[in-house]
Design goal:
Layout lengths: L3 H10 L6 H8 L5 H8 L7 H11 L3 H4 L15 E5 L8 E5 L8 E5 L14 E6 L8 E6 L2 E10 L2 E5 L8 E4 L6 E11 L4
Antiparallel strand pairs: 1-2, 3-4, 4-9, 5-6, 5-9, 6-7, 7-8
Helix pairs in contact: 2-3
Length: about 200
């Protein structure tokens, strides 16, 4: 994810409206060290509820805070956003995106259930997928393969496709031409969110 959240949280913190300790209490975070991690970029992707709380405390737009909008202050005509439900998550699991994006594409979201994509994506990360069947070799895609949803890098070869994990502890899946009928590309991973436990 880009550095917009880090830049903008630092901009808000520089106003010194709240100390790190005061802000952490208002956000319901036990350690003020978490705020410092937001500021220095160690945590780039806070939860949607945290983004909303921070934005409300500083009277700014949540979409601006996470870099989806250049409009700093809430404008209901231009700064609307939507929640994309995480299909394999808890009932309240969502990813927030600008409503502008949904006008041109459909999106789905999944929880990464293992560490097969580490270090790029870790177990528990929420992945936003732009729905499309067209992809390039090396794209990381959500794939319906034999009725199982996999998130893998797709490699095109002369004999078919390779569904390749990033973590070398996991084996790639080779799909020969005759097996491709069992495979459907749902879309391309375009964003991830990492949450504190």
């Amino acid at each position: 994810m880009n550095k917009k959240f880090q830049e903008r949280i630092n901009e808000l913190l520089s106003k010194k409206i709240y100390t790190y300790e005061e802000l952490s209490k208002k956000l319901g975070i036990k350690s003020k060290g978490t705020i410092a991690k937001y500021a220095n970029g160690q945590i780039k992707n806070p939860s949607f509820s945290t983004v909303e709380k921070i934005a409300n405390l500083y009277n700014v737009s949540p979409s601006w805070l996470i870099g989806f909008s250049e409009n700093k202050y809430i404008n209901t005509k231009t700064d609307e956003y939507v929640k994309i439900k995480v299909l394999n998550g808890e009932s309240n699991d969502n990813i927030i995106i600008s409503k502008m994006l949904t006008k041109s594409n459909d999106y789905i979201a999944f929880n990464q259930k293992d560490d097969s994509l580490s270090p790029e994506f870790l177990k528990g990360d929420k992945l936003l997928i732009r729905c499309q069947s067209i992809y390039k070799s090396e794209d990381i895609c959500a794939i319906d393969y034999k009725n199982e949803i996999l998130i893998r890098k797709i490699i095109k070869t002369d004999i078919g496709l390779i569904l390749k994990p990033i973590n070398t502890d996991y084996e790639p899946i080779v799909c020969l031409e005759k097996d491709i009928k069992n495979l459907k590309v749902l879309g391309i991973v375009i964003k991830s969110e990492r949450f504190l436990k």
